[in-house]
Amino acid sequence: GENVEQHPSTLSVQEGDSAVIKCTYSDSASNYFPWYKQELGKRPQLIIDIRSNVGEKKDQRIAVTLNKTAKHFSLHITETQPEDSAVYFCAAPNFGNEKLTFGTGTRLTIIP
Amino acid sequence: NAGVTQTPKFQVLKTGQSMTLQCAQDMNHEYMSWYRQDPGMGLRLIHYSVGAGITDQGEVPNGYNVSRSTTEDFPLRLLSAAPSQTSVYFCASRLGEAKNIQYFGAGTRLSVL
């Protein structure tokens, strides 16, 4: 099955700086990579995703990059703001795209 | 649309008690899943279903049962609660295979004493 590793587990950045979270996956057949944001006490919500036929996708201050050869993908947040403070999860599909395997999460803290 | 609705929001059980966590979705999604969230361990898949009448085990299925008699409902049953099952449980649904957006319920915080 798919194994997803996520680093770092915690990350603190100064407001206005950039944050990068990286995930690696094991199944070379995986073709879809979502990122979820979970604010304190709330449910996880999808913020961006990328499919394996592209190398990068941007949505305002958020971007995701994918390196299929190295089997890793990263979340980039630029010009960070206090509301970016949350736990972020990456995920990858396995077992014929039926299941989503999640990383262990990164707690991002934006320092005002 | 209400989306994915979970009940109850909070529950305290004694060791050995049984209970059912309810999950319902009104988006006509085929795929539904149950996850548990523990500190430092992310979201781990307990059971999932790809349609009414079809269920399968995830990563941590022991101690839990599920059934899917309708498209809308996917209850999770704890047969004999143990302190190790203290966790936050999330139900999720999506239209089809993994490349579709997955929507989560608000979660159930369960404590087993």
Largest sheet of chain B: 7 strands, mixed
Mean pLDDT of chain A: 94
Helix fraction of chain B, binned, reads under 10%
Regarding quaternary structure, what we see is: heterodimer
Mean pLDDT of chain B: 95
Q: State which percent range the strand residues of chain A make up.
A: over 45%
| Major β-sheet profile of chain A | 6 strands, mixed
List the total number of helices of chain B: 0
Order of helices and strands of chain A: EEEEEEEEEEE
Please give the most extensive interface between any two protein chains, plus how many residues each contributes: A-B, 24 and 24 residues
**Rounded Rg of chain B:** 13 Å
Structural class of chain A: mainly beta
Helix/strand order of chain B, N-terminal first? EEEEEEEEEEE
- What are the low-pLDDT stretches of chain B, counting only 5+ consecutive residues below 50? none
Estimate percent helicity of chain A. Answer: under 10%
First-to-last CA distance of chain B: 36 Å
The helix/strand class of chain B is mainly beta
Report on this structure.
The complex is a heterodimer of chains A (112) and B (113). Chain A has no helices and 11 strands. In chain A, the strands form 2 sheets. In chain A, strands 2, 4, 5, 9, 10 and 11 form a 6-stranded mixed sheet that branches. A 5-stranded antiparallel sheet of chain A has the order 1-3-8-7-6, with no helix packed on it. The relative contact order of chain A is 0.34. Chain A has 112 residues and is an all-beta fold. Chain B contains no helices and 11 strands. In chain B, the strands form 2 sheets. In chain B, strands 2, 4, 5, 6, 9, 10 and 11 form a 7-stranded mixed sheet that branches. Chain B has a 4-stranded antiparallel sheet with strand order 1-3-8-7, with no helix packed on it. With 113 residues, chain B is mostly beta strands. The N and C termini of chain B lie far apart (36 Å). The chains are: A mainly beta (112), B mainly beta (113). The interface between A and B is medium-sized, with 24 and 24 residues.
